[in-house]
Amino acid sequence: MQTPDNNNDLILPLFLGRTPIISYMRGRLLTSKPWRLVPLFALLASWLIAGQNFDSPVNRDPTDVRMSRVLDGLLPAAIIRGQPLPTMRLTERMRYHDVPGVSIAFFDNGDVRWARSFGLADVAANRPVTQETLFQAASISKSVTALAALRLVQDGKLKLDEDVNFKLKSWKVPENEFTKTEKVTLREILSHTAGLTVFGYGGYSTGKPLPTTVQVLNGEKPANSDAVRVDAIPGRQFRYSGGGYVVAQLLMTDVTGKTFPQLMRELVLQPLGMTSSTFDQPLPRTIGQTAARPYDGKGQPVQGGWHTYPEMAPAGLWTTPSDLARLAIEIQRAYAGQSKLLSESLAQQMLSYQSDGVYGLGVALGERGHALSFSHSGGSAGYTSFFEGHPESGQGVVIMTNGDNGLALIGEIQRGVSQEYGWSDSRPEEHTLAKIDPATLRAYTGMYLFGGLFRFTITQKNGALYAYYPPFGNEPQELLPESDVRFFMTSHPVVFDFQKESDGSIRRAQVRNGSEKLEGEKISDPTLP
Fold it and tell me: What number is the average pLDDT over the span 398-419?
């Protein structure tokens, strides 16, 4: 099975507040590679390129005051009960995470209220990030694709609950024992319940030959991914599938006779005024001059530059935070029945749970029982991004970075925004610190595999436990005891519940974020990459 170095499929990963666990970069989890040692960025002034300052808010615009409180008030994932709430500055955390550039847009009541950029789009050229700098949005592409697909449903060209093979012309979903009674539908594709394979795509380095959409679906060279097939009964369970969105890509082009980039321009980008956005793959050279360069987890340029994604529907969008904010604003308007682009009925379906999972149509939804929110995250080689919207308040935020460690930083920014604007679902959780015998810690160590995908290495050092997980950064993160079997991090909102056997050994554990849980088992002795 293909396991790309960097996978675009990030949806609400483990460290974004109290949002659910769904998936996180399968390629990064299942493969490892030696990281090069690099020096810290020398030009510290570059982190303040956007002209931000953190002076006294006296006589300043109230919006600027709130923005500055966010940028000065980044928050960890968890805090120890009884201790004061620690806050962190954005520029300091960028250096800590080796993320060269960040761009943020906050929207409220139908407008982008503030947008700021920090750091460098190109370190070697000392080129700053601006509000016009393009970032690769990766899996956030799915949200834009879903809106376009729903517009085709609204126009009568597609049906949500019809067998997609009725309108597919240049390729068909192969029939097998899983499709005898249930067929693959567009609703199932958009909600990741179609039973289709291929979690995500790694893209193609500069100069590599690009496959056609049909070659991608069949797993034929020069495609670097497996064939997309049904291997579970459609409609029965949530399972993330970038491959399903490639099926949607072909379906949409087959019924319209238009290229996918053209279709996306006409259905979404131009009507919403997303003038800085494109699905063109490869990225045209003239546009590429305004794009941020990608950097790995050590702050080094990604070898070969950004990747090209012929899998445009799940991963092909280049955009800016302000443009993505326009998308989220339109979804909120449609949900309230105020959009000329999409009907209230279809928007209501888009923001409704489509299965026992946490996904609607093209967007992930917040934890059940909380105020409605929708979001998506994305990560490809050297880029990580996230957006969320809150229909009840009309607010939301978009954060885009050009670093592999960007989502750790994004989580801290998101919690700062949540604290400032009163979003209750993303604030740091409080934990009580317990004392345990350091001599017992050896039993916890080892490599654990959670949900068949996520590898954590638990080690012991100086009387404490640490968890190493590449998306959490380059260094192991300390696990603090809440009891003799429960441990938490302050850096990421995850809790480990270890299960003791009758002989005192530990072979199994559970990792959770809010109400979402993944079971895991120890698969080997600890060895750090």
Answer: 94
Beta bridge partners, 364, equal 359, 375
Same domain, 356 and 443: no
Query: Which residues, other chains included, contact 305 with Cβ-Cβ below 8 Å and sequence gap of 6+?
Result: 205, 206, 293, 294
In the chain, count H helices and then E strands. 13, 21
Q: Please write the tens of the pLDDT for every residue from 458-497.
A: 999 999 999 998 878 778 999 999 999 999 999 888 999 9
Residue 397 lies in a domain: yes
371 and 415 in a common domain = yes
Q: 129, 203, 125: which is closest to 399 by C-alpha?
A: 129
Q: Alpha carbon of 250 to those of 136, 196, 202, 397, 413: distances in Å?
A: 21, 15, 19, 31, 36
Structure tokens belonging to residue 467: 């968890």
Domain of residue 519 covers 432-524
CA distance 355 to 58: 50
Q: How many angstroms separate the Cα of 293 from the Cα of each of 28, 46, 89, 290? A: 19, 15, 24, 9
Tell me the backbone φ, ψ of residue 146, rounded to 5 degrees: -65, -40
| Cα–Cα distance for residue pair 522/445, rounded to 1 Å | 9
Task: Indicate if the pLDDT at residue 70 is higher than 70.
Answer: yes
Pair 383, 28: CB distance under 8 Å: no
Question: Across residues 393-399, what is the average pLDDT?
Answer: 97
Sort 249 into a burial class: Cβ within 10 Å, 0-12 / 13-18 / 19+.
buried
Q: What is the pLDDT confidence band of residue 516, given thresholds at 50, 70 and 90?
A: confident
Look up the CATH number of the domain holding residue 520.
2.40.128.50
Contact between 222 and 129 (Cβ < 8 Å):
no
* CATH number of the domain within which 304 lies: 3.40.710.10
* Count of C-beta atoms within a 10 Å radius of residue 162: 15
**Strand 318-319 vs strand 135-136: parallel, antiparallel, or unpaired?**
antiparallel
Going through 372-433 in order, the beta strands assigned E by DSSP cover: 374-380, 383-390, 395-401, 429-431
* Distance from C-alpha of 261 to C-alpha of 272, rounded to nearest angstrom: 15
> Is 141 within a domain?
yes
The domain total for the chain is 2
Indicate the pairing of strand 23-24 with strand 486-488: unpaired
